[in-house]
Amino acid sequence: MDRREFCQKTLLAALGAAIPALPGCGRRVRTAADADTSIPGISLDGAELELEKAAIKELGESMTGPVILSGHPEYDAARRIWNGMHDKRPALIARCLTPEDVSQAVTFARERELLVAVRGGGHSWPGKSVCDDGLMIDLSQMNTVTADPQTRRARAQGGALLGALDTAALEHGLVTTAGVVSHTGVGGYTLGGGFGRLNRKYGLTIDNLTSAQIVTADGQIRRVSEEQEADLFWAIRGGGGNFGVVTEFEFQLHPFERRLLTGDIIWPIEQARDVLAFYGEWSARLSDEMYVGPALVTPPDGSPSLIMGVLYNGDPVAGEKELAPLRKIGKPVQDAVTMQDYMARQTKDDETFGHGIRSYAKSGMVKEWSQELIDAMLDAYDPRIFLGDHVAGGAVKRVGELDTAFPHRNAEFMLVIAAGWKDPAQDEELIAAARAYYHALEPFMGGYYDNIDFDGSKAAGNYGPAYARLSKIKGQFDPGNLFRLNSNIEPAG
Ligand SMILES: Cc1cc2nc3c(=O)[nH]c(=O)nc-3n(C[C@H](O)[C@H](O)[C@H](O)COP(=O)(O)OP(=O)(O)OC[C@H]3O[C@@H](n4cnc5c(N)ncnc54)[C@H](O)[C@@H]3O)c2cc1C
Q: Residues lining ligand 1, judged by CB closer than 6 Å?
């Protein structure tokens, strides 16, 4: 490496870590370059390893982004993820700035059989994006999103957040399906499927994925699409982070009017049985433009309520007409469905689901809205628990069961059961409460959403008929199961 290249790399590293470069062309502070001893690591199967000083330095020199070690001023912030329950300490954090950086980090881990965690937006409920004593491949600085109004495509780097995707697309009067909390990562969210308020019209986020760039376990940087590496492209649309590190996602965008009819209608829980019974029949006939998702929520200083989150993606006059029957049921205490900006809606819950809360969640796919389900929801309801509902159907259901690796096309609803709290002393009590509520609803569920499950470890059963093909592709691209901190698919031999 010549002096100019060295300075460039060091400058990029300093920018990535937000640390000022020192005079004399930027010596890094407590990064790989400063490793003065070997450090302990952990192998893929849990054995202790020694990471040699020379190898760590070499990794540092091969990357434009910094390799952060314990003691670096950014180490603690870098290892922290959204769910405050997970307090893990990686041996190394490779803060990647380019696909080539990712490739170097992947190769380093594979050659040593070192445990790897890949961090996109860091919103993994079960904390799969961080690990003790392994290598964290940190994509948080690879967070740029661009949108092209001519081709109606957006390109999002592997560590981008959903808010950046929405913002870039909306600037051109375009949109694609994105989830309901804007600080969620595009990476994990997309690879698991991607539910949002527009999915009845445009499908899941994976249904809008047109191509991706991925670094596979062999360190190769590949472009995948229907035309190129079609098997791998199929697998990443639902198969999670099993197949490599996605460094760029390309999405189809759709023309979109950002001012639209949206907001919440709220009823006291005493009226929930009637409203939910009506909802079951009524929602089965809704247009693809209409999204109405029920939730049972108890605010800290309030009483249990049923909330219907509404969004109509189309002519508001038609939306008002379609919504009218729901508004006539019972006596809502609040009806805040009005013309609003889509981005205001998409960021409304950002604070409620803020970083650092301790949280436990489970999910389940529901094919049918029945009276028995409503009874179970209400009879077992626990005010400490949040019950949310992502509505599917529409365009989600029109994609064939095995056209992508997402296995639950027939479901009409995806229920989310979650608890959030601050005090670690409440961990046990609230996890138990969420589990108890989940078990009351489990008989009505068929499988779960991989992206929202704290202890989902039944990948084979949950992927159903897609699993055999997934396992074969895993065997082809990740035979050593390097990418195992996810809803893990066993590589076929
Ligand atoms: C507050 C909150 C709101 C949510 N809302 C929704 C919603 O509206 N709709 C919905 O469908 N889901 C939602 N989810 C679930 C969400 O889809 C998952 O938590 C998802 O895994 C988050 O992705 P991430 O990149 O932020 O997570 P991370 O913690 O970074 O990663 C999650 C998993 O994906 C892998 N991964 C991440 N990025 C990459 C990449 N670029 N390449 C390869 N592997 C990668 C990780 O290794 C890990 O296994 C929400 C979650 C939270 C916490």
A: 81-82, 118-125, 128-129, 139, 158, 179-181, 184-185, 187-189, 191-192, 194-196, 240-241, 245-246, 353, 451-452, 485-486
